[in-house]
Amino acid sequence: MGDFKIDSHSPLGFGAHSLVYCGKDLETQGRVAVKVMSPHAPLAAQPEQISYGIAREERVVQKLLSIGQQHPNVVDLVTQFVAPGHEARAHKFILPSQVYENPIHVCVTEYLGGGSLEDAMLYRKSQGEVFEAHEALDVALAASRGISFLHQLGIAHRDVKPGNLIYSTSRKDLKLIDFSLAETALTGRTLQPLQGDVGTEGYVAPEVLRCSYTGEGEPSSYGPSCDVFSLGCVLHEMLVGAPPTVELLPDSSRVACSLPERLSSKMRSFVESLLAVDPAERPESSMIPEVCLDVAQGER
Q: Which of 120, 142, 149, 276 gives 20 to 30 Å between its CA and that of 164?
């Protein structure tokens, strides 16, 4: 498919409208991850809505490709393209027949073989263990650098979670992947409010959840700071074993943290700052790495 050989027998993962396979770049001979998207994929219940989502993801990916700059904490993008549906049949993808009759959308990234943070967390949970503060700070440092890179480009990821934080094969780098819910929040130099209740349960900011709130009051808009809250949820889960609980009230929201006393006051304050209900009270993503390094001095 294009300049890539895809191993259709080794899927790496799947989503509502996509399948991800391991592949090989025929030019460099390097391993890549190939994401095949279609509004007619097996779990795509609303093709029109999925088509909009695919187009949104393609806009974000194109913006990242166009700057010609990679970041060590964001997955390296190789290319994206649209291919005839019959190529999916030729590669023996097991998909509904409608997929073969329509164009498929393909996004190629570097291959990351070190496993996800979610994998590491599941293992710790199976052992009845949680992470130490310094381990959570390592994750916070890497993830916040990636998030900050996106925010500086006017991009909100909107799905920061353990499953979207993947280690490189050497496990030297932790990288943010998957732009299926990402949105460009910058028009020219103007920051535009975001809409839509999107994200993964347990990692969604109150202002995002309020977009679908059915109680009294109007649905709200929000900004890229929703990613900072999601990062706070990831750290909370690493340290406690579960994300915090978010409760929506008619005119306010409540976030219930349960950080253990074994943590230093600096560490607790840091995580709680990320989980502030008011986005204005959360630190800017660009400031988080500096805070991580400061807190880490007392944790190692």
A: 276
